[in-house]
Amino acid sequence: MQINPETDLVVERLLKAPPALVWRCWADPKLLCQWYMPKPWTLVDAEIELRPGGRFYLLAQSPDGQQFPNEGAILLAEPHTRLVFTDLMTRDYAPVEKVSADFGPAFTAVMTFEPEGTGTRYRTIARHMSVADARANAEGGWTEGSAVATDQLDALSQELPQ
């Protein structure tokens, strides 16, 4: 995949757990709620239908208790290899209305999980429609927040039994 540095935000890391365990942290909503949001934010609910057109729903909560629902659709789910979703659509590719103007710009997310040694070369990419959307998401802290969440993912995936 070719990265456009103007519209794509990228976080890449070598995680210590193998791809199957990292994938499990994405695929299981209970596990996703444990690591997805950089603390002190939390993810209080999630629904993931791992099929093209499946629902990808998140309910994030700010430290002061404000909740932010985010509807999305799975575009591609290749177990232990690649997960792609967008918040431009919801279940069965129905267009989604933006929940609130302050939630942030819409994007398509691409996660890849490649075996490397005993771990996983993990890459998450947020693809935006415009340079302005990418800048707004970057200024909102996407890269820093994703880096913290990736650290949380790394820690949780190492705790899971193989």
Q: What does this protein look like?
A:
There is one protein chain. This protein has 162 residues and is α+β, with helices and mostly antiparallel strands. It contains 4 helices and 10 strands. It has helices at residues 19-27, 29-35, 131-139, 142-159; strands at residues 8-15, 42-48, 56-61, 67-70, 73-78, 82-86, 89-90, 94-95, 107-116, 119-128. A hairpin with a 3-residue loop joins strand 7 and strand 8. The protein starts with 7 loop residues before the first strand and ends with a helix.
**Approximately how much beta-strand content do the residues carry?**
35-45%
Mean pLDDT: 93
Question: What is the radius of gyration?
Answer: 15 Å
> Strand-and-helix sequence, N→C?
EHHEEEEEEEEEHH
Low-confidence runs of at least 5 consecutive residues: none
**Quaternary structure:** single chain
**Biggest sheet, in brief?**
5 strands, antiparallel
The overall strand count is 10
Shape: globular
Helix content: 25-40%
Through-space gap between termini? 30 Å
Biggest sheet: strand arrangement = 1-10-9-6-5
Number of continuous helical runs: 4
Structural class: alpha+beta
InterPro entries: ASHA1/2-like_C, START-like_dom_sf
Family: Belongs to the AHA1 family.
Pfam family, one: AHSA1
Protein name: SRPBCC domain-containing protein
